[in-house]
Design brief:
alpha+beta, Aspartate Aminotransferase, domain 1, 6-stranded antiparallel beta sheet
Amino acid sequence: MNYDAFNAFCGALPATSHVVQWGGAQVWKVGGKVFAIGGWNKDENTPAYTFKVSPMAFELLQGEPGLRPAPYLASRGMKWIQHYTTPGLNDDALQDYIRESHRIVSLGLTKKKQRELGQNQLTGE
C-alpha cells in the first residue's frame, strides 16, 4: 500500500479527520484521537504505517518480520504496532488492522462524542 491508498482508505472510514503533523506524517483521527499514522520511517523510500491494536494482537504482531512496537508510542506502554518494511502485512491485513484501530479508538471516546459522530450506536433501540 502506498500513502495515497492509505489516505484514501482511512478517509473512507466513518467520522475521520486528517492532518499532517510530526515531521510530515499523515495522521488520521476519529473524534480528535489518532488511530493511524502514515510516515515516521527513517527509510523515506519505504512507507510505514502505525496503528493501535488489542493487547493480544500486540503480542502476536510485535515480533513478525516487517512489524515492530511503534516507536514513541509503544515505549510509553501503549499498544501500537508499526508496519515499517517488507514483508510486513499484505494490504488486506493492513486495512483490517487499521479498521480495527479506528474501532478501538472510537470506543475510547466519551459516549457523548460517540453519539455526536454517529459511532458505535446500536440500532433498533
